[in-house]
Amino acid sequence: MNKILDAYRKNTPASAAAQARAERSVPGGNSRGAAYWTPHPLTIKRAMHATVVDVDGREYIDVVNNYTSLAHSHAYPPIVEAVTKQVGGGTAWTANNVWQAELAETLIERIPSAQGARFTNSGSEAGILALTIARAITGRNKVLMAKYGYHGILMEYEAGSFPGLMPHGENATYIGIYNDAESFEQILAEHGSEIAAVVLEPVMGAGGVLAATSEFLNRVQAAANAAGALFILDEVITFRLSEGGAQALYDIEPDLTMLGKVIGGGFPVGAVVGKHEHMQVFDPAAAKVVHSGTFCGNPVTMAAGAVSVRELTAERIARMDALAARLCNGLATHASNLRLPLSIRREGSLLNILFAAEEPQEAAQRREDAEAMHLFFLAALNHGLLMAPRGLICLSTVMDEALIDTVVQRAAAAMEDVAEELAGEG
Questions:
Q1: Between the CA of residue 7 and those of 10, 231, 375, 414, what are the distances in Å?
Q2: Contacts for 1 with CB less than 8 Å, ≥ 6 apart
């Protein structure tokens, strides 16, 4: 008998009922695949600070923060104040708002490669817009990305993980191996005249928080430039790693940068920033790229985003990094005591747990530790800890040492359950 699974079902009957109800009208029960897990996902009714509460009334410390988008966790007072004020003054209109310029100016001030910004409603839309810009500038159609990279729901990007499901995307996409510069250089040497853009994450998110090497990024950028393709960094996740994003840490300036998540302060957002020479495609007189959207640059999102980015200071980023190191040490100690194989990839406030004795050196979809990870994820929920099913953890600025120690204690209890479960299977 699976005690962990049984306990989860016993703890969450209202969430199970909510999922069953949703499935009658929403195919699959939700509109977001990453928010689904078996036997059923939680249904949350409220969130505050670093805590979420489900419809069964159970509280969880949130250590995934909506897949890295909540730098200041839930209902952060300065964001709530700005949003409440803006909602009271209207939520959308067919004209400019001052918040859009304020957020754009802040991003340009922080990101060395940014001289202009255009806003979208999601990171996926930012990925689409970035590729549209590259195609308009180069007159080419194809894209080069890394295997297991993730840049949103555009078929050309989905081909990186699901080539068999995306025949159109596969035909428009070349795939290199992350941290293998030679694989990218070879593709660009052979097919550079077809490639509009090379798109890379400085730290792979879906690939398991795997960081690029400086040599890899620099060599790929040089090869892209030599081939006449734009070099695009996807910083939707990694912008939280420093005030200027991961590119500031790597001292690299891409042609375009995709942004999202934290720059919206908890509201739907995306952006593309870049140098004037590339962003000029939006000049109405040039008529190269027409970009619009009913909610692009929405005043509520822009108000929340301006506060979120302003309050994501170097000091707070450093504090999150220190807390993440404290969490890593605690998890590793308890896993060792239980003789559970465990490795943790960490970049700043981003972590990914893997139940493997040695950290994989390449990006890959989870395989060997899939059972242990699923058991741990459910066991963590049983002990009041919400992370991503794949083991992704992301900290926020509202956390402190005492809360991290509580997270370690709950994770340790979950590890004990997993060790007992696996021992029973053996």
A1: 5, 48, 11, 12
A2: none
Beta bridge partners of 271: 119, 259
Query: DSSP for 402-423?
Result: HHHHHHHHHHHHHHHHHHHHHH
Query: What's the pLDDT tens digit per position in 54-99?
Result: 999 999 999 999 999 999 999 999 999 999 999 999 999 999 999 9
| 228 three-class SS | coil
- With H, G, I as helix, E, B as strand and everything else as coil, classify residue 205: coil
| Of the candidates 295, 290, 349, 343, the residue with the CA atom closest to the CA atom of residue 323 | 349
Burial of 414 (0-12, 13-18, 19+ CB in 10 A): buried
What digits encode the pLDDT tens for the residues 329-348?
Answer: 999 999 999 999 999 999 99
Three-state DSSP class for residue 106: helix
Q: Give the domain ranges of the chain.
A: 3-74+313-425, 77-310
**b/e per residue, 237-265, with b = 16+ CB within 10 A?**
bbbbbbbbbbbbbbebbbbbbbbbbbbbb
Instruction: CATH number for 3-74+313-425: choose from 3.40.50.620, 3.30.70.1650, 1.10.1750.10, 3.90.1150.10.
Output: 3.90.1150.10
